[in-house]
User: Which sequence fits this backbone?
């Protein structure tokens, strides 16, 4: 599954997990994506959209 928002293109961020001894291991910060049906061009599609775009009404949900 592609972890990319359909509306804004938000992708996973990358960083380090730090243990108690400060050893760094790579990790991913996943965006909060939800699978929703959206209305686009008169048709409905099921896509992944981040919760920030859902909350700010950047996409219109299909009925």
Assistant:
């Amino acid at each position: 599954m592609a972890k990319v928002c359909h509306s804004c293109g938000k992708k996973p961020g990358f960083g380090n997990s730090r243990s108690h001894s400060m050893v760094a291991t790579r990790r991913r910060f996943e965006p909060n994506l939800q699978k929703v049906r959206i209305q686009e061009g008169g048709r409905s599609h099921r896509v992944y959209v981040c919760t920030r775009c859902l909350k700010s009404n950047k996409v219109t949900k299909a009925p």
Q: What stands out?
A: Residues 51-55 form the longest helix (5 residues). The mean pLDDT is 94. The chain has one domain: 1-63. DSSP finds one helix and four strands in the chain.
